[in-house]
Amino acid sequence: MTPDDISLVASRVALVRKRIANAGGQNVKLIAVTKTFDVSALIAAFDAGCDGVGENYAQELVAKAQLVPGDKRLPVHFIGRLQSNKVKMLAGVVDLWQSVDRRELILEIAKRCAGATTAHRSIMLQVNSTNEPDKGGCQPSEVETLLSLAVNNNLDVLGLMTVGPTESQPEQARQSFRLVRKLADQLGLAQCSMGMTGDLEVAVEEGATMIRVGSALFGARG
Q1: pTM passes above 0.90
Q2: Residue by residue, what is the 3-state secondary structure of 148-169?
Q3: How far is CA 57 from the centre of its chain?
Q4: Considering its fold, how many domains does the chain have in total?
Q5: For position 141, what pLDDT does the model report?
Q6: CA 125 to CA 138: how far, in whole Å?
Q7: Tell me, what CATH number does 96's domain have?
């Protein structure tokens, strides 16, 4: 990111916060998706008052995490599809594992984060609420079983995460967001991470407590 880009982040964060408020959101956390941007984006997100940063790629995250000053560090959310063999390198770096969607991943996180602080053992279960075969996430019918497994392995399940339909109008995401919020409520889970730059208003209206925004803050990725 250039210095000019960095100076714009705070104003862009303010605009996104306004969009959230206009959609009726209160206490909705803003996770700045910093994947593919350099470490300056993580620092800019901190300075602009974001609630966390979201990363998708293990090696990239580990490299950038080493460069962030300790007094500029936001909670790190892993939001991409995650291979079990990458958990070891991320343990101690990731504060919230958002994309947990299968038994093997739950057991690996529990193993690698055993004895870690509660923060590093916090997860969200990702739900494939659109039934798209190329998307990560478990089926809605699998959530309860995975939740029990995670709790029994001493993981702190904060809630559910989902991604809206690919290449659709924002309104078309409403049904999938509503499904995930209803499922979270049925299971007694408070948090719902759903909604991105294009569909955040619909997500907030349907009960998102956390949104993941990248391009609206940092511009288009190269």
Answers
A1: yes
A2: HHHHHCCCEEEEEECCCCCCCC
A3: 13
A4: 1
A5: 97
A6: 8
A7: 3.20.20.10
